[in-house]
Design brief:
two-stranded antiparallel ribbon; mainly alpha; AbgT; membrane; secondary active p-aminobenzoyl-glutamate transmembrane transporter activity; 4 strands
Protein backbone atom coordinates (compact mmCIF):
# COMPACT_ATOMS: atom_id res chain seq x y z
CA UNK A 1 0.00 0.00 0.00
CA UNK A 2 1.42 3.40 -1.00
CA UNK A 3 2.08 6.16 1.51
CA UNK A 4 -0.59 8.27 -0.20
CA UNK A 5 -3.20 5.53 0.31
CA UNK A 6 -2.15 5.12 3.94
CA UNK A 7 -2.49 8.87 4.48
CA UNK A 8 -5.93 8.83 2.84
CA UNK A 9 -7.15 5.99 5.07
CA UNK A 10 -5.78 7.78 8.14
CA UNK A 11 -7.57 10.98 7.09
CA UNK A 12 -10.85 9.06 6.69
CA UNK A 13 -10.50 7.58 10.19
CA UNK A 14 -9.73 11.01 11.69
CA UNK A 15 -12.69 12.57 9.90
CA UNK A 16 -15.02 9.83 11.20
CA UNK A 17 -13.82 10.31 14.77
CA UNK A 18 -14.16 14.09 14.47
CA UNK A 19 -17.58 13.74 12.92
CA UNK A 20 -18.71 11.57 15.83
CA UNK A 21 -17.38 14.04 18.40
CA UNK A 22 -19.04 16.92 16.58
CA UNK A 23 -22.39 15.15 16.37
CA UNK A 24 -22.37 14.26 20.06
CA UNK A 25 -21.16 17.72 21.05
CA UNK A 26 -23.79 19.46 18.95
CA UNK A 27 -26.49 17.68 20.92
CA UNK A 28 -25.39 19.43 24.11
CA UNK A 29 -27.16 22.69 24.86
CA UNK A 30 -25.15 25.86 25.37
CA UNK A 31 -23.76 26.30 28.93
CA UNK A 32 -26.65 28.51 30.11
CA UNK A 33 -29.30 26.03 29.00
CA UNK A 34 -27.19 23.12 30.25
CA UNK A 35 -27.10 24.51 33.78
CA UNK A 36 -30.75 25.50 33.60
CA UNK A 37 -31.47 21.86 32.82
CA UNK A 38 -29.21 20.70 35.66
CA UNK A 39 -30.97 23.14 38.00
CA UNK A 40 -34.33 21.61 37.03
CA UNK A 41 -33.01 18.06 37.53
CA UNK A 42 -31.60 19.00 40.94
CA UNK A 43 -34.89 20.65 41.89
CA UNK A 44 -36.90 17.51 41.03
CA UNK A 45 -34.36 15.11 42.58
CA UNK A 46 -34.13 17.11 45.81
CA UNK A 47 -37.92 17.15 46.13
CA UNK A 48 -38.17 13.38 45.61
CA UNK A 49 -35.41 12.77 48.16
CA UNK A 50 -37.06 15.14 50.64
CA UNK A 51 -40.36 13.26 50.33
CA UNK A 52 -38.44 10.03 50.91
CA UNK A 53 -36.89 11.52 54.07
CA UNK A 54 -33.32 10.96 52.81
CA UNK A 55 -30.63 12.07 55.25
CA UNK A 56 -26.85 12.15 55.19
CA UNK A 57 -24.22 12.35 57.90
CA UNK A 58 -20.88 13.89 57.00
CA UNK A 59 -17.85 12.10 58.47
CA UNK A 60 -16.40 13.99 61.41
CA UNK A 61 -19.73 15.47 62.49
CA UNK A 62 -22.52 14.34 64.76
CA UNK A 63 -25.19 16.23 62.88
CA UNK A 64 -27.48 14.61 60.35
CA UNK A 65 -28.30 16.65 57.26
CA UNK A 66 -31.84 16.30 55.95
CA UNK A 67 -32.25 16.70 52.20
CA UNK A 68 -34.42 19.75 51.45
CA UNK A 69 -36.73 19.74 48.44
CA UNK A 70 -36.99 22.63 46.00
CA UNK A 71 -40.69 22.07 45.27
CA UNK A 72 -41.69 22.36 48.92
CA UNK A 73 -42.92 25.36 50.88
CA UNK A 74 -39.47 25.82 52.40
CA UNK A 75 -37.66 25.41 49.10
CA UNK A 76 -39.84 27.74 47.06
CA UNK A 77 -39.73 30.39 49.79
CA UNK A 78 -35.94 30.11 49.93
CA UNK A 79 -35.66 30.54 46.16
CA UNK A 80 -38.03 33.50 45.79
CA UNK A 81 -36.31 35.33 48.64
CA UNK A 82 -32.74 34.63 47.51
CA UNK A 83 -32.66 34.69 43.71
CA UNK A 84 -30.72 37.97 43.74
CA UNK A 85 -28.50 36.90 46.63
CA UNK A 86 -27.72 33.64 44.85
CA UNK A 87 -26.50 35.63 41.83
CA UNK A 88 -24.61 38.45 43.51
CA UNK A 89 -23.31 36.05 46.18
CA UNK A 90 -21.74 33.79 43.54
CA UNK A 91 -18.13 33.95 44.85
CA UNK A 92 -16.33 34.26 41.48
CA UNK A 93 -18.02 37.60 40.84
CA UNK A 94 -16.28 39.19 43.84
CA UNK A 95 -12.86 38.12 42.61
CA UNK A 96 -13.12 37.99 38.84
CA UNK A 97 -14.75 41.37 38.20
CA UNK A 98 -12.05 43.55 39.87
CA UNK A 99 -9.30 41.60 38.11
CA UNK A 100 -11.15 41.90 34.80
CA UNK A 101 -11.28 45.67 35.22
CA UNK A 102 -7.52 45.79 35.82
CA UNK A 103 -6.62 43.39 33.01
CA UNK A 104 -8.94 45.41 30.79
CA UNK A 105 -6.84 48.52 31.41
CA UNK A 106 -3.61 46.63 30.67
CA UNK A 107 -5.06 45.04 27.53
CA UNK A 108 -7.03 47.94 26.06
CA UNK A 109 -4.16 50.37 26.67
CA UNK A 110 -2.02 48.13 24.46
CA UNK A 111 0.40 47.10 27.21
CA UNK A 112 -0.16 43.33 26.96
CA UNK A 113 0.05 43.30 23.15
CA UNK A 114 3.22 45.39 23.29
CA UNK A 115 4.78 42.96 25.75
CA UNK A 116 4.01 40.06 23.40
CA UNK A 117 5.45 41.88 20.38
CA UNK A 118 8.53 42.79 22.38
CA UNK A 119 9.07 39.18 23.42
CA UNK A 120 8.73 37.97 19.83
CA UNK A 121 10.73 40.72 18.18
CA UNK A 122 13.78 40.37 20.42
CA UNK A 123 14.07 36.57 20.21
CA UNK A 124 16.93 35.11 18.09
CA UNK A 125 16.00 32.75 15.25
CA UNK A 126 16.92 29.50 17.04
CA UNK A 127 14.87 30.40 20.10
CA UNK A 128 11.69 31.44 18.29
CA UNK A 129 9.82 28.14 18.98
CA UNK A 130 10.50 28.57 22.68
CA UNK A 131 9.58 32.26 22.58
CA UNK A 132 6.27 31.35 20.94
CA UNK A 133 5.76 28.63 23.56
CA UNK A 134 6.50 31.04 26.38
CA UNK A 135 4.19 33.76 25.12
CA UNK A 136 1.47 31.21 24.31
CA UNK A 137 1.46 29.48 27.69
CA UNK A 138 1.49 32.73 29.69
CA UNK A 139 -0.85 34.36 27.17
CA UNK A 140 -3.92 33.22 29.11
CA UNK A 141 -3.40 36.44 31.04
CA UNK A 142 -5.17 38.04 28.04
CA UNK A 143 -8.06 35.58 28.38
CA UNK A 144 -9.62 34.46 25.08
CA UNK A 145 -7.98 37.33 23.20
CA UNK A 146 -4.76 35.29 23.27
CA UNK A 147 -6.26 32.80 20.77
CA UNK A 148 -6.69 35.58 18.23
CA UNK A 149 -3.61 37.75 18.91
CA UNK A 150 -0.76 35.30 19.46
CA UNK A 151 -0.96 32.80 16.52
CA UNK A 152 -0.82 35.36 13.65
CA UNK A 153 1.95 37.31 15.40
CA UNK A 154 3.92 34.09 15.83
CA UNK A 155 3.46 33.28 12.13
CA UNK A 156 4.72 36.72 11.17
CA UNK A 157 7.82 36.44 13.36
CA UNK A 158 8.65 32.96 12.05
CA UNK A 159 8.33 34.20 8.49
CA UNK A 160 10.52 37.23 9.09
CA UNK A 161 13.21 34.95 10.55
CA UNK A 162 13.12 32.58 7.55
CA UNK A 163 11.28 29.85 9.40
CA UNK A 164 7.95 28.25 8.47
CA UNK A 165 5.12 30.67 9.39
CA UNK A 166 2.57 27.83 9.75
CA UNK A 167 4.73 26.34 12.52
CA UNK A 168 4.45 29.64 14.39
CA UNK A 169 0.72 29.85 13.69
CA UNK A 170 -0.12 26.34 14.88
CA UNK A 171 2.45 26.32 17.66
CA UNK A 172 1.13 29.58 19.06
CA UNK A 173 -2.42 28.24 19.09
CA UNK A 174 -1.38 24.96 20.70
CA UNK A 175 0.59 26.70 23.44
CA UNK A 176 -2.31 29.05 24.22
CA UNK A 177 -5.01 26.37 24.17
CA UNK A 178 -3.36 23.26 25.60
CA UNK A 179 -1.69 25.31 28.34
CA UNK A 180 -4.58 27.67 28.97
CA UNK A 181 -5.19 26.80 32.64
CA UNK A 182 -1.66 27.59 33.80
CA UNK A 183 0.63 30.60 33.70
CA UNK A 184 3.66 32.11 35.37
CA UNK A 185 1.40 34.94 36.49
CA UNK A 186 -1.80 35.16 38.49
CA UNK A 187 -4.71 35.64 36.10
CA UNK A 188 -8.45 36.19 36.27
CA UNK A 189 -8.86 32.44 35.67
CA UNK A 190 -7.14 31.77 39.00
CA UNK A 191 -9.63 34.04 40.70
CA UNK A 192 -12.54 32.42 38.87
CA UNK A 193 -11.55 28.86 39.80
CA UNK A 194 -10.84 29.84 43.41
CA UNK A 195 -14.24 31.49 43.72
CA UNK A 196 -16.05 28.42 42.38
CA UNK A 197 -14.07 26.11 44.69
CA UNK A 198 -14.87 28.31 47.68
CA UNK A 199 -18.55 28.31 46.81
CA UNK A 200 -18.78 24.53 47.19
CA UNK A 201 -16.61 24.21 50.31
CA UNK A 202 -18.10 26.92 52.50
CA UNK A 203 -20.66 24.54 54.05
CA UNK A 204 -18.31 21.59 54.51
CA UNK A 205 -16.84 20.74 57.91
CA UNK A 206 -13.03 20.61 57.92
CA UNK A 207 -12.78 21.72 54.28
CA UNK A 208 -9.05 22.32 54.53
CA UNK A 209 -7.18 25.53 53.81
CA UNK A 210 -8.82 28.60 52.28
CA UNK A 211 -8.62 28.61 48.47
CA UNK A 212 -7.38 31.91 46.99
CA UNK A 213 -6.25 33.01 43.51
CA UNK A 214 -2.68 31.93 44.43
CA UNK A 215 -3.57 28.52 45.88
CA UNK A 216 -2.22 26.76 42.76
CA UNK A 217 0.61 29.22 42.08
CA UNK A 218 3.56 26.90 42.81
CA UNK A 219 1.96 24.13 40.74
CA UNK A 220 1.18 26.59 37.95
CA UNK A 221 4.75 27.91 37.75
CA UNK A 222 6.28 24.43 37.52
CA UNK A 223 3.62 23.31 35.03
CA UNK A 224 4.09 26.39 32.88
CA UNK A 225 7.88 25.95 32.70
CA UNK A 226 7.53 22.28 31.74
CA UNK A 227 4.87 22.99 29.10
CA UNK A 228 6.88 25.88 27.64
CA UNK A 229 9.90 23.63 27.16
CA UNK A 230 7.79 20.86 25.63
CA UNK A 231 5.84 23.17 23.31
CA UNK A 232 9.07 24.76 22.04
CA UNK A 233 10.59 21.32 21.42
CA UNK A 234 7.51 20.05 19.56
CA UNK A 235 7.34 23.15 17.37
CA UNK A 236 11.06 22.97 16.57
CA UNK A 237 11.62 19.22 16.19
CA UNK A 238 8.26 17.78 15.17
CA UNK A 239 5.81 20.32 13.75
CA UNK A 240 8.09 22.47 11.58
CA UNK A 241 10.05 19.59 9.98
CA UNK A 242 6.79 17.77 9.18
CA UNK A 243 5.38 20.87 7.49
CA UNK A 244 8.50 20.96 5.33
CA UNK A 245 8.12 17.30 4.36
CA UNK A 246 4.47 17.90 3.45
CA UNK A 247 5.41 20.83 1.23
CA UNK A 248 3.11 23.33 2.96
CA UNK A 249 3.45 26.81 1.46
CA UNK A 250 5.51 29.38 3.33
CA UNK A 251 3.66 32.29 1.71
CA UNK A 252 0.00 33.22 1.92
CA UNK A 253 -1.92 31.96 -1.11
CA UNK A 254 -4.39 34.46 -2.56
CA UNK A 255 -7.48 33.68 -4.64
CA UNK A 256 -5.77 33.39 -8.03
CA UNK A 257 -3.22 30.90 -6.75
CA UNK A 258 -0.38 33.39 -6.41
CA UNK A 259 1.46 34.01 -3.19
CA UNK A 260 1.73 37.19 -1.24
CA UNK A 261 4.54 38.13 1.08
CA UNK A 262 2.80 41.20 2.44
CA UNK A 263 2.75 41.38 6.20
CA UNK A 264 -0.37 42.70 7.86
CA UNK A 265 1.00 42.95 11.38
CA UNK A 266 4.14 44.54 12.78
CA UNK A 267 6.30 43.09 15.52
CA UNK A 268 8.68 46.01 15.95
CA UNK A 269 7.60 48.55 18.52
CA UNK A 270 7.73 52.27 17.87
CA UNK A 271 9.88 54.56 19.99
CA UNK A 272 6.75 55.71 21.81
CA UNK A 273 5.70 52.14 22.55
CA UNK A 274 9.18 51.26 23.82
CA UNK A 275 9.13 54.32 26.06
CA UNK A 276 5.70 53.30 27.33
CA UNK A 277 6.96 49.80 28.12
CA UNK A 278 9.94 51.17 30.02
CA UNK A 279 7.86 53.43 32.24
CA UNK A 280 5.21 50.72 32.70
CA UNK A 281 8.01 48.45 33.93
CA UNK A 282 9.18 51.17 36.32
CA UNK A 283 5.61 51.57 37.58
CA UNK A 284 5.37 47.82 38.12
CA UNK A 285 8.63 47.82 40.11
CA UNK A 286 7.35 50.69 42.26
CA UNK A 287 4.09 48.81 42.96
CA UNK A 288 6.03 45.67 43.88
CA UNK A 289 8.37 47.71 46.08
CA UNK A 290 5.52 49.35 47.98
CA UNK A 291 3.87 45.97 48.57
CA UNK A 292 7.17 44.43 49.67
CA UNK A 293 7.85 47.22 52.15
CA UNK A 294 4.34 46.78 53.54
CA UNK A 295 4.99 43.07 54.00
CA UNK A 296 8.38 43.49 55.70
CA UNK A 297 7.19 45.92 58.33
CA UNK A 298 7.27 44.17 61.74
CA UNK A 299 3.75 45.36 62.53
CA UNK A 300 2.43 44.90 59.00
CA UNK A 301 -1.37 44.83 58.99
CA UNK A 302 -1.13 42.07 56.36
CA UNK A 303 0.31 39.62 58.91
CA UNK A 304 -1.83 37.21 60.93
CA UNK A 305 -2.02 37.09 64.72
CA UNK A 306 1.13 34.96 64.85
CA UNK A 307 3.10 37.50 62.83
CA UNK A 308 3.19 35.33 59.70
CA UNK A 309 1.30 35.01 56.44
CA UNK A 310 0.38 31.33 56.28
CA UNK A 311 -1.95 29.52 56.32
CA UNK A 312 -4.32 32.49 56.65
CA UNK A 313 -3.66 36.18 56.82
CA UNK A 314 -4.94 39.54 55.54
CA UNK A 315 -2.26 39.23 52.83
CA UNK A 316 -3.88 36.16 51.27
CA UNK A 317 -7.26 37.85 51.54
CA UNK A 318 -5.80 40.85 49.65
CA UNK A 319 -4.58 38.92 46.59
CA UNK A 320 -7.31 40.41 44.39
CA UNK A 321 -6.20 43.93 45.33
CA UNK A 322 -2.53 43.09 44.67
CA UNK A 323 -3.30 41.65 41.24
CA UNK A 324 -5.53 44.65 40.50
CA UNK A 325 -2.77 47.14 41.33
CA UNK A 326 -0.14 45.14 39.43
CA UNK A 327 -2.14 45.38 36.21
CA UNK A 328 -3.95 48.67 36.40
CA UNK A 329 -1.08 50.99 37.40
CA UNK A 330 1.42 49.91 34.69
CA UNK A 331 -1.48 49.85 32.21
CA UNK A 332 -2.41 53.43 33.04
CA UNK A 333 1.22 54.55 32.75
CA UNK A 334 1.64 52.83 29.37
CA UNK A 335 -1.66 54.21 28.10
CA UNK A 336 -0.79 57.75 29.17
CA UNK A 337 2.60 57.71 27.43
CA UNK A 338 1.36 56.09 24.21
CA UNK A 339 -1.85 58.11 24.08
CA UNK A 340 -4.25 55.17 24.26
CA UNK A 341 -5.47 56.54 27.60
CA UNK A 342 -5.32 60.30 27.10
CA UNK A 343 -7.74 61.51 29.73
CA UNK A 344 -9.47 60.37 32.88
CA UNK A 345 -12.68 59.45 31.10
CA UNK A 346 -10.78 56.89 29.04
CA UNK A 347 -10.22 54.74 32.14
CA UNK A 348 -13.86 53.80 32.76
CA UNK A 349 -14.25 53.43 28.99
CA UNK A 350 -11.58 50.73 28.69
CA UNK A 351 -12.83 49.08 31.87
CA UNK A 352 -16.29 49.06 30.37
CA UNK A 353 -14.96 47.34 27.26
CA UNK A 354 -13.39 44.66 29.45
CA UNK A 355 -16.70 44.01 31.20
CA UNK A 356 -18.49 44.04 27.85
CA UNK A 357 -16.13 41.35 26.58
CA UNK A 358 -17.13 39.23 29.57
CA UNK A 359 -20.86 39.92 29.36
CA UNK A 360 -21.44 36.32 28.36
CA UNK A 361 -19.87 35.14 31.61
CA UNK A 362 -21.96 37.61 33.63
CA UNK A 363 -25.12 36.15 32.11
CA UNK A 364 -23.87 32.59 32.64
CA UNK A 365 -22.97 33.44 36.25
CA UNK A 366 -26.67 34.04 36.98
CA UNK A 367 -27.65 30.43 36.38
CA UNK A 368 -24.35 29.11 37.80
CA UNK A 369 -25.09 30.98 41.03
CA UNK A 370 -28.60 29.52 41.24
CA UNK A 371 -27.33 26.00 40.56
CA UNK A 372 -24.56 26.15 43.18
CA UNK A 373 -26.89 27.73 45.74
CA UNK A 374 -29.55 25.02 45.23
CA UNK A 375 -26.89 22.32 45.45
CA UNK A 376 -25.80 23.70 48.82
CA UNK A 377 -29.32 24.44 50.12
CA UNK A 378 -30.77 21.04 49.25
CA UNK A 379 -27.88 19.01 50.68
CA UNK A 380 -27.62 16.90 47.52
CA UNK A 381 -23.98 17.86 47.14
CA UNK A 382 -23.19 16.43 50.57
CA UNK A 383 -25.19 13.27 49.84
CA UNK A 384 -23.40 12.71 46.50
CA UNK A 385 -20.02 13.33 48.14
CA UNK A 386 -20.63 10.80 50.91
CA UNK A 387 -22.11 8.22 48.51
CA UNK A 388 -19.29 8.75 46.00
CA UNK A 389 -16.57 8.58 48.63
CA UNK A 390 -18.09 5.38 50.00
CA UNK A 391 -18.25 3.90 46.50
CA UNK A 392 -14.61 4.70 45.78
CA UNK A 393 -13.56 3.27 49.13
CA UNK A 394 -15.54 0.08 48.50
CA UNK A 395 -13.59 -0.60 45.30
CA UNK A 396 -10.31 0.58 46.79
CA UNK A 397 -10.03 3.66 44.52
CA UNK A 398 -9.08 6.34 47.05
CA UNK A 399 -5.42 7.09 46.35
CA UNK A 400 -3.76 8.81 43.44
CA UNK A 401 -5.55 6.49 41.01
CA UNK A 402 -8.81 8.23 41.93
CA UNK A 403 -7.22 11.59 41.11
CA UNK A 404 -6.06 10.29 37.70
CA UNK A 405 -9.57 9.01 36.99
CA UNK A 406 -10.87 12.48 37.84
CA UNK A 407 -8.38 14.10 35.44
CA UNK A 408 -9.39 11.68 32.68
CA UNK A 409 -13.05 12.53 33.18
CA UNK A 410 -12.30 16.25 33.01
CA UNK A 411 -10.30 15.69 29.79
CA UNK A 412 -13.23 13.88 28.18
CA UNK A 413 -15.81 16.45 29.30
CA UNK A 414 -13.52 19.19 27.97
CA UNK A 415 -14.19 17.89 24.45
CA UNK A 416 -17.82 18.93 24.84
CA UNK A 417 -17.89 21.71 27.46
CA UNK A 418 -15.39 24.35 26.35
CA UNK A 419 -16.16 26.86 29.10
CA UNK A 420 -13.74 26.18 31.95
CA UNK A 421 -15.92 28.02 34.46
CA UNK A 422 -19.00 26.03 33.45
CA UNK A 423 -17.20 22.70 33.62
CA UNK A 424 -15.52 23.46 36.96
CA UNK A 425 -18.83 24.58 38.45
CA UNK A 426 -20.35 21.27 37.38
CA UNK A 427 -17.46 19.07 38.52
CA UNK A 428 -16.54 21.00 41.67
CA UNK A 429 -20.07 20.70 43.07
CA UNK A 430 -19.67 16.91 43.21
CA UNK A 431 -15.96 16.12 43.25
CA UNK A 432 -14.53 18.73 45.61
CA UNK A 433 -16.73 17.59 48.56
CA UNK A 434 -16.08 13.96 47.56
CA UNK A 435 -12.30 14.36 47.63
CA UNK A 436 -12.47 16.47 50.79
CA UNK A 437 -14.11 13.51 52.48
CA UNK A 438 -11.22 11.38 51.23
CA UNK A 439 -8.81 13.84 52.87
CA UNK A 440 -7.65 15.90 49.86
CA UNK A 441 -7.22 19.67 49.96
CA UNK A 442 -9.67 21.48 47.62
CA UNK A 443 -6.74 23.40 46.10
CA UNK A 444 -5.09 20.13 45.05
CA UNK A 445 -8.24 18.87 43.32
CA UNK A 446 -8.59 22.26 41.63
CA UNK A 447 -5.02 21.86 40.37
CA UNK A 448 -5.82 18.38 39.05
CA UNK A 449 -8.82 19.81 37.21
CA UNK A 450 -6.55 22.29 35.41
CA UNK A 451 -4.80 19.41 33.65
CA UNK A 452 -8.00 18.03 32.19
CA UNK A 453 -9.41 21.48 31.47
CA UNK A 454 -6.66 22.49 29.05
CA UNK A 455 -4.83 19.71 27.27
CA UNK A 456 -7.73 18.43 25.13
CA UNK A 457 -9.43 21.68 24.18
CA UNK A 458 -7.21 22.03 21.07
CA UNK A 459 -8.66 18.73 19.80
CA UNK A 460 -12.36 19.51 19.79
CA UNK A 461 -14.26 21.10 16.89
CA UNK A 462 -16.53 22.65 19.53
CA UNK A 463 -13.76 25.11 20.40
CA UNK A 464 -14.88 28.25 18.50
CA UNK A 465 -11.30 29.43 18.09
CA UNK A 466 -10.53 26.30 16.08
CA UNK A 467 -12.57 27.87 13.27
CA UNK A 468 -10.59 31.10 13.61
CA UNK A 469 -7.33 29.14 13.40
CA UNK A 470 -8.58 27.14 10.41
CA UNK A 471 -9.37 30.39 8.60
CA UNK A 472 -5.82 31.61 9.22
CA UNK A 473 -4.33 28.25 8.19
CA UNK A 474 -6.21 28.21 4.88
CA UNK A 475 -4.29 31.31 3.81
CA UNK A 476 -1.30 28.98 3.46
CA UNK A 477 -3.09 25.66 2.94
CA UNK A 478 -6.46 26.22 1.20
CA UNK A 479 -7.44 22.52 1.39
CA UNK A 480 -6.93 22.28 5.16
CA UNK A 481 -9.85 21.10 7.28
CA UNK A 482 -10.57 20.48 10.93
CA UNK A 483 -8.93 17.07 10.61
CA UNK A 484 -5.75 18.82 9.49
CA UNK A 485 -5.74 21.05 12.55
CA UNK A 486 -6.51 18.21 14.98
CA UNK A 487 -3.82 15.97 13.52
CA UNK A 488 -1.25 18.70 14.08
CA UNK A 489 -2.54 19.47 17.57
CA UNK A 490 -2.34 15.83 18.73
CA UNK A 491 1.40 15.84 19.57
CA UNK A 492 0.86 18.90 21.78
CA UNK A 493 -2.29 17.58 23.50
CA UNK A 494 -0.94 14.09 24.26
CA UNK A 495 2.49 15.31 25.37
CA UNK A 496 1.06 18.14 27.48
CA UNK A 497 -1.39 15.77 29.18
CA UNK A 498 1.25 13.19 30.06
CA UNK A 499 3.78 15.77 31.23
CA UNK A 500 1.19 17.68 33.26
CA UNK A 501 0.03 14.51 34.97
CA UNK A 502 3.69 13.75 35.72
CA UNK A 503 4.06 17.17 37.36
CA UNK A 504 0.90 16.53 39.38
CA UNK A 505 2.34 13.16 40.42
CA UNK A 506 5.55 14.78 41.65
CA UNK A 507 3.59 17.25 43.77
CA UNK A 508 1.45 14.43 45.15
CA UNK A 509 4.12 11.86 45.99
CA UNK A 510 6.60 14.41 47.36
CA UNK A 511 3.82 16.23 49.26
CA UNK A 512 4.78 19.61 47.78
CA UNK A 513 2.60 22.68 48.44
CA UNK A 514 0.35 23.63 45.53
CA UNK A 515 0.53 27.29 46.56
CA UNK A 516 1.01 29.47 49.63
CA UNK A 517 -0.72 27.71 52.51
CA UNK A 518 -2.22 24.93 50.37
CA UNK A 519 -0.91 21.37 50.48
CA UNK A 520 -2.07 18.01 49.14
CA UNK A 521 -3.89 16.43 52.07
CA UNK A 522 -6.01 18.11 54.73
CA UNK A 523 -4.09 18.13 58.05
CA UNK A 524 -5.67 15.76 60.54
Amino acid sequence: MSSAQTLTRRTVVIDRVLGGIERVGNKLPDPFMLFLLLFAITAVASTAMAWANVTVQLPGTDETTVIKGFFTAEGLTWFTQNIGVNYLGFPPLATVLPILLAVGVAEKSGLLAALIRKAFGSAPRWSLPYAVAFVGVVGSIMSDAAFVVIPPLAALVFKAAGRHPVAGLLGGFAAVGAGYSTSLFVTSLDALFAGITTSVTQNLPNAGSVVTPVSNYFFNVVSALVLIALAGFIIDKILEPRLGRQGIAREEIIDDGDVSGAAVMHTRLTDTENRGLFWAFVAGVVVAGVILVGLLLPDSPWRNEDGGFLPRSPLLSSIVFIVFATFVIPGLVYGKITGTIAKGSDVPRVMGHAIKDMSGFLVLAFILGQFVALFNFSGIGSWLAVAGAGGLESIGLTGFSAVIAFVLLASLLNLFIISGSAMWTLMAAVFVPLFVLLGYEPAFIQGAFRVGDSATQVLTPLNPYMIVLLTMLRKYEPQAGLGTVIARMLPFAVTFWLAWVAVLSVFFFFDLPMGPGNGIMIPQ
